Amino acid sequence: MREFEIEVPAPEKWGEGLVAVPQGDPIEIDARAESVHEGILVSGTAAAEYVGVCGRCLTDIARPVEVEFQELFAYPGEETSDFEVQDDHVDLETLVRDAMVLSLPFQPVCQPDCPGLDPITGERLTSTAGTEQREPLDPRWAALQDYTQTPTTKTAPRAADIVENTEES
After folding, report:
1. Rounded CA gap, 151 and 161, in Å?
2. Minimal CA–CA distance to 70: which of 21, 36, 97, 33?
């Protein structure tokens, strides 16, 4: 068994869509290679930072991403395998790239409760908090615009306002 801690630059841009790991950014890999009967079992973690834009408000974001991986690199032989030992070496690039790209968020957000963009003005709602725009009022409801739910001073009902129900059922 051998353990490795290496840092390599990303050979190309990893990921498509709103976020990706840019080419040349460092990727930290902690790996353990174990010799087994069928080949070399490689397990470990890879960490990098993805950059892109928020899916709601389109601000720039950069977040860390860390993935775990484990794969058996088979010795060359009769059976074909996706990952094989070649000249006593294993190539981790495909394994780490696949794990890293699959763990990138599909709809990344700058914060969990990001309100996004204002549908009317197109401005970010996070930067215009407190300046809420009112919807245009339907003229049929205009009479109720000044209605408040706070009670005003109440007076006791007058005797003339009380009508007794004398009708029998």
Report:
1. 20
2. 33
Q: At 157, which amino acid appears? A: P
Query: Quick one: CA dihedral 122, 62, 19, 106, positive or negative?
Result: negative
SS3 call for 161:
helix
**Cα gap 100→12, rounded to integer Å:** 13
Count other Cβ atoms within 10 Å, centred on residue 128. 13
Mean pLDDT of the chain: 82
User: Phi then psi for 97, rounded to 5 degrees?
Assistant: -60, -45
φ, ψ at 112 (rounded to 5°): -55, -30
Residue with tokens 């991403």: 65
pTM: 0.65
| Beta carbons within 10 angstroms of residue 33's beta carbon | 16
Strand partners of residue 68: 45
Query: What is the pLDDT, as a whole number, of residue 62?
Result: 93
- Can you give the pLDDT at residue 12? 92
Residue 29's φ and ψ, nearest 5 degrees, are -125, 125
